[in-house]
Design brief:
By secondary structure, this protein is an alpha+beta fold. The protein has 17 helices and 34 strands. Strands 1-9-10-11-12-19-16-15-14 form a 9-stranded antiparallel β-sheet. Strands 2, 3, 4, 5, 6, 13, 17 and 18 form an 8-stranded antiparallel β-sheet that branches. Strands 27-28-29 form a 3-stranded antiparallel β-sheet. Pfam families: GDE_C, GDE_N.
């Protein structure tokens, strides 16, 4: 893995250190997460964030353990960091950090107070909602270490205030149980019990959300560090509370061994690939039902089938996890209804609201069988996959149907946004893309061919599938090329002056990256043309991947900033999406274009935002500051996949 470390000039500069985030997942959808500075900048940050029935229904528990060191002189030095609603940052322990390292995926801080050096490591017990925080004296001493436990118990998407109920804290052996939900254990527990008012989260303020909350100071742990090597450790774990986890140092060692094994299983060709393999591991989880699933992004997303299927090859087939992938594909196949794959249950109910998620599922199954030779799975899922084709031909939800005139797939209903460009502002789709979107039809053609091959592998007749594939391919080649020199983004779209279903239709030639799939997929409908690809790259490509809209478009939004409406309004109107680097590189390679320098910017990005991982989005304008989730599944998966192809 790449060497990720920061010295005092990064650690001690709040703007630099607080904008770099670390993540330690528990394998269930929960996590520990924070910043290099130790400052919590999001409502989602904490040392114990517990998953619920779905990964998205998380609860924040232990928020922080603030260290304070009493030196032999009697001086007391606070090493934590909090920002307050007043604008003050106090304490400012980051100013004493001499180094931060990410070692085998685990964060490690070193504070220097003169001759005294103290180290902190954080790890989660794999497969359990349990965190260990180990403090070790490296040099100097003896010193006394106190750890103040700031706690809450609330939905990760909200905040808790002092004008509500006081958290219930019950004293138990070597610690306490908070709200009956999680337990704290460590040496020298002393109960306290008071509100810390007005803790500020600067990233929530930047996102236009309520930025402040109140935390409950439940108590403090304490211990003596007499000589180098001595430790003071704290564990926190959620139910079952009576099943005590291993000692903290053993948890750290277990997590480190597991992470090394994850990387070794992926057989990375270089250090970057090793880092991406471990980053990918964060998204593959076992839910409360013990089923394999994929978290789309941390810290606020749960499972979304579109994201899962786009990520499938990178997360599972490029990392030696085909058996888990097989299990996941079978489980997702069981959600098919009217030829559509369930998209998400994050909202509290199962939703069927994409036109492309199901087509990405066809692609994932085809890639699984092609890469692994697992024809048994292909045979097993074949009847379900045929229902997808039949339903799309006959017509299914939201006007999704095959147009018999040209064999292409059309879609759209009032108020819907069914493609991956699905943002809404006040319930109104920003990019409804009603009609025949280019990537949807590339996926449809790709899916028909992939299913035809699976059918033939099963010894069955695929004539009708190949006929439909031929018709759709011919129509695609005839209709999608635009006079502008690239491909139309949507065919047969309602003209702007007409409502959905109005008489006038037009072909939208906005320069967007969706067309890349027409050249990049295994059964792509077009052969790449270098001149066309260069036009697309000249208009869209940035160091972190393609923009979602060319800068010269009237609707272009160059900064993905502001409140929810501002951010959603610009989400697909120029914002950069790193996952699209995968389709771009595939298309360029097929067009015999050099992509040797395509990964330079995004590999450097591994040190910039979600450290060791890849962000969800970035600004469309330089310097392309990262936005959205710091840790995003399809961004990691697609980079891992296309880099692997070049090695």
């Amino acid at each position: 893995m790449i060497d990720i470390r920061f010295g005092p000039q990064i650690c001690g500069d709040l703007a630099s250190a607080a904008s770099r985030e670390w993540l330690v997942p528990d394998g269930l959808g929960g996590y520990a997460m924070g910043t290099v500075a130790g400052l919590r900048t999001r409502r989602y940050h904490g040392l114990l964030v517990v998953p619920g029935e779905t990964p998205a229904s998380r609860q924040v528990g232990l928020v922080s353990l603030d260290p304070a060191v009493t030196l032999p002189s009697g001086a007391r030095v606070r090493l934590g960091a909090h920002e307050w609603a007043s604008g003050d940052v106090d304490p400012r322990g980051f100013e004493l950090l001499e180094r931060f390292d990410l070692v085998d995926g685990l964060p490690r801080w070193r504070w220097r107070i003169g001759a005294v050096v103290i180290e902190r490591e954080v790890a989660m017990l794999p497969g359990r909602s349990c965190v260990a925080v180990v403090h070790r004296l490296i040099a100097g001493g003896p010193v006394r270490l106190e750890l103040s436990a700031a706690c809450t118990w609330r939905d990760a998407h909200g905040e808790r205030r002092a004008d509500g109920p006081t958290p219930q804290v019950e004293a138990v052996a070597d610690g306490a149980v908070v709200e009956g939900a999680y337990r704290l254990a460590g040496p020298g527990w002393t109960p306290e019990g008071q509100w810390w008012l007005g803790v500020h989260h600067r990233e929530e303020a930047n996102r236009g959300l309520h930025p402040d909350e109140d935390l409950w100071y439940a108590g403090r742990f304490s211990g003596e560090l007499q000589r180098p090597g001595d430790t003071v450790s704290v564990r926190a774990w959620a139910a079952p509370l009576d099943e005590e986890p291993p000692p903290a140092e053993e948890i750290v060692a277990t997590a480190r061994r597991r992470n090394r094994q994850v990387v070794a299983t992926a057989k990375p060709a270089d250090d970057v690939a090793g880092t991406l393999a471990l980053a990918a591991d964060a998204f593959v989880v076992r839910t409360t039902a013990a089923a394999v699933d994929v978290v789309a992004g941390y810290p606020w997303f749960g499972a979304w089938s579109r994201d899962t299927m786009i990520s499938y090859e990178g997360l599972f087939l490029c990392t030696g996890r085909a058996d888990e992938g097989r299990e996941l594909l079978r489980a997702y196949a069981a959600t098919l209804s009217e030829g559509m794959l369930a998209n998400t249950a994050d909202t509290g109910r199962v939703e069927y609201n994409t036109v492309d998620g199901t087509l990405w599922f066809l692609h994932a199954v085809s890639r699984h069988v092609t890469v692994t030779g697992d024809t048994d799975l292909g045979d097993e899922l074949l009847p379900a996959l045929r229902t997808v084709i039949d339903a799309h031909v006959a017509g299914t939800r939201y006007g999704i149907r095959v147009d018999p005139a040209d064999g292409l797939l059309t879609q759209g209903a009032a108020g819907t946004a069914l493609t991956w460009m699905d943002a809404r502002v006040y319930g109104v789709p920003v990019t409804p893309r009603t009609g025949k979107p280019v990537e949807v039809n590339a996926l449809w053609i790709n899916g028909l061919a992939g299913l035809a091959e699976l059918t033939e592998l099963a010894g069955q007749d695929a004539h009708e599938l190949w006929r439909r594939h031929g018709q759709a391919t011919a129509s695609f080649r005839e209709r999608f090329p635009a006079p502008s020199g690239w491909l139309h983004d949507v065919l047969d779209a309602p003209a702007p002056a007409y409502p959905l279903g109005g008489a006038a239709l037009h072909d939208d030639d906005a320069l967007r990256p969706n067309q890349l799939l027409a050249w990049s997929l295994p059964y792509a409908p077009l052969e790449p043309d270098e001149a066309t690809l260069r036009r697309v790259a000249d208009g869209l490509l940035t160091p972190l991947g393609p923009r979602s809209l060319a800068p010269d478009a009237a609707e272009f939004v160059g900064r993905h900033r502001g409140g929810p409406a501002d951010r959603d309004g610009g989400y697909h109107q120029g914002t950069v999406w790193p996952w699209l680097l995968g389709p771009y590189v595939d298309a360029a390679r097929r067009g015999k274009m050099s992509v040797d320098d395509a990964f330079v910017g995004i590999e450097a990005h591994l040190m910039e935002y979600g450290i060791g991982s890849v962000s969800e989005t970035a600004d469309g304008l330089a310097p392309h500051t990262a936005t959205g989730c710091p840790f995003q599944a399809w961004s990691v998966a697609e980079l891992l996949r296309v880099r692997r192809k070049s090695q």
